[in-house]
Amino acid sequence: MPKAYWITCYREIKDPAKVAAYAKLAGPALSPFGARYLCRATANETFEAGQKERVVVTEWPSVQAAVAGHDSPAYQAALKALGDGAVRDIRIVEGLE
Predict the structure, then answer these.
(1) pTM of the prediction?
(2) CA dist 37 → 8, 28, 49, 74, 84 (Å)
(3) Helix, strand, or coil (residue 17)
C-alpha cells in the first residue's frame, strides 16, 4: 500500500496563539495513526505561482490512515483550538510507492 502525504499551506495566520495551541494538540493526536512530520516552515523559495507561506508536509502509512487521523476526536479537538486562527489549504495525496 503506498504512503500518503498531507500537505498544509497556511494562506494566512490570524492568531499565532491559536496556531500554537493547535500545534501542541495536533502532533499527539495524529501520531497514533502513523503521522510523521517531514517539514514545517515558511517556504525558502517560491516559483511560478508559489506563495511564501508556511507549509507543513506530513507522511502517513496510507490515505486511509491520514483520513482516520483527521476524523479522530483528538484531532477534531485540535481543530477546535485552532478555530479561526488561520486560513489553511489541506490536501491528502497518495504517494507513488
Answers:
(1) 0.90
(2) 11, 12, 25, 17, 23
(3) helix
Q: How far apart are CA 52 and CA 24, in angstroms?
A: 24
Contact 92, 30 (CB under 8 A): no
Q: What pLDDT, in 10s, does the model give residues 49-80? A: 888 999 999 999 999 999 999 999 999 999 99
DSSP string, 60-82: ES-HHHHHHHHHSHHHHHHHHHH
The domain limits of the chain are: 4-94
CB 34 within 8 A of CB 61: yes
Please tell me the class of the 4-94 domain.
alpha beta
φ/ψ (deg, to 5) at 25: -90, -35
15 φ, ψ (degrees, to nearest 5) = -145, 100
